[in-house]
Design brief:
The chain is mainly alpha-helical and 141 residues long. The protein has a domain of 96 residues: Helix Hairpins, CATH 1.10.287. 94% of the residues lie in helices and 0% in strands. It is built from 2 helices and no strands. Helix 1 packs antiparallel against helix 2. It is rod-shaped, with a radius of gyration of 34 Å. The two termini are 46 Å apart. 4% of the residues are buried.
């Protein structure tokens, strides 16, 4: 029977590589979420400052500022949507690679168990033969 240790190592390596890709996507999502939250916090902070010092000039500047912030948040939402799709694909790839690895491991374990059973059977037969020989020698004497 073929030794599956090398194949198991290869499958494990593939799972690890796919997990690294998945972790990178998660990091990108977290970074974009943090940027989005910073924009929204800044917008709220500026809105509070505007409410405390409401003038026509500050109101006009705030309107343009808010439009830029909202556009940036919308761009981040678009990027997040794209990353969510990539994230789902990467998760599915990790699941598939892990399932492949487990299948190979199960086949390997079954083969090892069959080999152990075969060895045990041969040892039992050998011990039986030795016992019978011993009995026969004892009976002859």
């Amino acid at each position: 029977m073929a030794d599956l240790e090398a194949l198991i190592r290869l499958r494990r390596h593939m799972v690890e590589e796919k997990q690294k890709v998945l972790a990178g996507i998660f990091e990108q999502v977290e970074s974009l979420e943090a940027q989005k939250n910073e924009f929204l916090e800044r917008l709220n902070k500026e809105r509070k400052a505007l409410d405390e010092n409401l003038t026509l000039e500050t109101s006009a500047y705030y309107g343009r500022f808010e439009a830029v912030i909202r556009r940036n948040v919308e761009l981040l939402n678009t990027e997040l949507s794209t990353l969510e799709t990539r994230l789902e694909i990467a998760q599915e790839e990790v699941r598939g690679a892990f399932a492949d690895m487990k299948r190979v491991e199960i086949v390997h374990e079954r083969r090892q168990e069959e080999e152990r059973q075969e060895i045990d059977k041969k040892e039992s037969q050998n011990l039986d033969a030795i016992g019978i020989d011993g009995f026969m020698r004892g009976a002859e004497e």
